[in-house]
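Reviewers of the previous submission asked for a worked example of the structure-prediction workflow described in the proposal, so we include one complete record here. The input consisted solely of the amino acid sequence. No template or homolog information was supplied to the procedure at any stage.
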Amino acid sequence: MSIVTLPGLKDLIDSISRERNLPRLAVQAALKEALLKGYERYRRAQRLDGFHFEEDFFDNFDVELDLEEEGFRILATKVIVEEVADSDHQISLEEVQEATTEAFLGDSVILDVTPDQREFGRMAAIQTKQVLSQKLRDQQRKLVQEEFEDLEGTVLQARVLRFERQSVIMAVNSGLGQPDVEAELPKREQLPNDNYRINATFKVFLKKVREGPHRGPQIIISRADAGLVVYLFANEVPEIEDEVVRIVAVAREANPPARHIGSRTKIAVDTLERDVDPVGACIGARGSRIQVVVNELRGEKIDVIRWSPDPATYISNALSPARVEEVRLIDPDERQAHVLVAEDQLSLAIGKDGQNVRLAARLTGWKIDIKDIAKYDYAAEIAKKEELRAAEPEEEEIDEFEEELPEDLEASELEETE
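From that input alone, the workflow returned the following structure tokens.
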């Protein structure tokens, strides 16, 4: 069998495997694909008569690497036929029977079609090199995806490498014994008070591992995701790790509309243990536990509030640090509530540019209107509520009529049949 020699093939595969941290089999697979593309380029260059190669023309060709002789062969799978119409995909029964008598029409045979070393050509070699580089990148992306896809939603340690446009490129490690890989921290996922200097380290939330052959880093990390806050509290509060205290909901605004507003998070916690204060557990003695979280988030304001199954109590707690006088559940079905506060608490309840009430609404899932209790028109709101109640029976009557209608129709149909 003929062979196209590649001096130093074994050492080449070993060095690529080490440099790119790829298994030797993955490097060999990439090399075989690249050599096959080089052979395809060689064959196309041979046909200058305008012959049209179909898309699947080379599907029956394969590359065999020979690490001992340091070279490769091109093999073709051909079907045995009576008369050959396509010599690249077919071989005559008569020709096969010259080598063996155990051959029948319709069988397949594998033949060595390796071109001459000199004929393979410089252009084919260049094509092979280009494709090999691309295939190795594809193999690396595939391995990175497999390594990190199970880590989505977890927190990793990251180190700043460089800056690309508004993104920060960081090195992250899966903790599985593999070298660091690059991850992207987009502008929208950064914290305004972070100082992203080269080699600075940060805790980051692994948000997404992108699929497909993307250019550049395919791991998207975040410093602004609510998952990072959950992790930091779980790491600092043993009661959360022991499941004595649970985090029910988190609302975070890490990148507010205006810089002067500042980052803020509201986190609702609860416990089933009567003698445990979930809020106190998260704050710690003299604020020691929550201060660790605040420091990691570069001074972000954090409100820890007690969750309650009673919507009015939950909404009141969520508007902390404002003092709430009364919560009126105007429309429970639509989850709309009026929150009444004293005049001196209005600005505190609403917050800068509405941040406090906005986060409270996201935390509770209720639409919240802050009202001055001194100016609140109870009579008007009661009248509106009565109007809504008066409309409900009419809707029920309509529903009952619609439900009874098919039975009347069925009865009339029976009468006509009789």
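The two ends are 91 Å apart (CA to CA). We consider this example representative of the routine output the project will generate in years two and three.
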